[in-house]
Amino acid sequence: MSELSELSEPTPRSPQPVQPPQPVQPPQQVQPPQPVQPPQFTVQPLSAEQLPELPVHERGLWTVVLKLHNGGLVPWVLMGPSEFLKTRGVSGDGLYALRAFRGPGRRGITDGPGDGIGNYGGCVVGGPFASDDSEAAVALGTELAQRGADALLFVEHRGVGMVLVDGRVPAPPFVPKMNDARGPRNNVKFTATGNARMSRGVPAGDLSKGPAALARSELLVGYGVSYWRFRARLGSESTPLVLE
Questions:
Q1: Which domain holds residue 112?
Q2: For the domain that residue 172 is a member of, what is the CATH number?
Q3: What pTM did the predictor assign?
Q4: Alpha-carbon distance 97 to 218, whole Å?
Q5: In a domain, 192, yes or no
Q6: What is the distance between the alpha carbons of residues 153 and 122, in angstroms, rounded to a whole number?
Q7: Number of structural domains in the chain
Q8: Quick check: helix, strand or coil at residue 173?
Q9: Does residue 76 form part of some domain?
C-alpha cells in the first residue's frame, strides 16, 4: 500500500445556515442645533460717560446690570456704594434703579402688582422648614448669623417648601445687595418665593449728576422679622459672634 492510500479522507463540512436579509434602516433624522438662550441679565463696568465725577480708581466699585428685554439689552439696576448706608455712617454696597420702576397700581383696566426687579439669588443652606420661626429654622439662622452670614432670607421653594437662602454671593441682578431702611423709605417687598417687587415707584437714577443724586433711586427692602431676630441676638452671652 502506498503512503498516499494511508491518508484519511477529509471530513465533509456541514452547510452553513443562510442568514435572512437584514431590514434596511431608514436614515436617522439629524436634529438641527438648538439656539442657545442668552442670559436674562448681563453685567458691564461703568463707561467713561457714566458718573463722570468718579475718580478712575473708584469705577471698579460699580457694576451696571442690563436685562434682556424685547430682544435687546436695557439698563436695569446699578450696584455700588450705598448712599443710604452712608447716611448711617456705614460703608457697603447697595442697588439702584436705572429705569423708572412702578409700584402697584392701575395697568389699563386692571390693577397690577409692582414691577419685578428679580429673584433673591444665592445658595440654599437649609430646609425645608415648617415655617421661618420653627425651632430648626431659628437654630440654623442663628448659627449662620453667628458665623458672619448677613444675607439670609427664607423663601418658599416650589415642590420643596420653605428653605433658607444665603445671598452673600449673588448673581445678577444682585437682589441681595438691597439694604433695609426699616421704615417708610423702603420701596421694595419680597414675595413668599423671594421675588423682589416694587411697593412704590422710584425714578431712574441719573448717572450724570454723581453718586449723591442716586439716593432717590436706591432700592430698599424689608428683610423680614426673622432676619432681624437673628441679628438682635448676636453678641449676647447666649449668641456670641464666631470669628473664623
A1: 41-233
A2: 2.170.270.10
A3: 0.81
A4: 6
A5: yes
A6: 10
A7: 1
A8: coil
A9: yes
